[in-house]
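On clarity, I found the account of how folds are encoded harder to follow than it need be. An entry of this sort, consisting of the sequence and the corresponding backbone structure tokens, reads as follows:
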Amino acid sequence: HVQLLESGGGLVQAGGSLRLSCAASGGTFSSYVMHWFRQAPGKEREFVAAISWSGGTTNYADSGKGRFTISRDSAKNTLYLQMNSLKPEDTAVYYCNARGAAVEYWGQGTQVTVSS
């Protein structure tokens, strides 16, 4: 059973940057495709970014293209999301997700608040 723990959220002004981290434990980190999702108040949870098990392939929602970068460090069992040029509409709880062949795990989320 994989446990995921996000960190790095906080309050930032529009135009600022944050780097989110997701520390994985209890499983083989490199076996999972990793994702970031987010959920704003009153809205559905939405996809933000994904990275393949090798780190060689990444995918982004249109909202984050050119501003967000997903990466993973298998030696540290950690997933990252570098967020630049943040906008108020990026305000949400950000969740880390690990997806395997027949399993899926979620972290508890970290709050990101972008002030205008």
User: Anything to note?
Assistant: The chain has a mean pLDDT of 96.
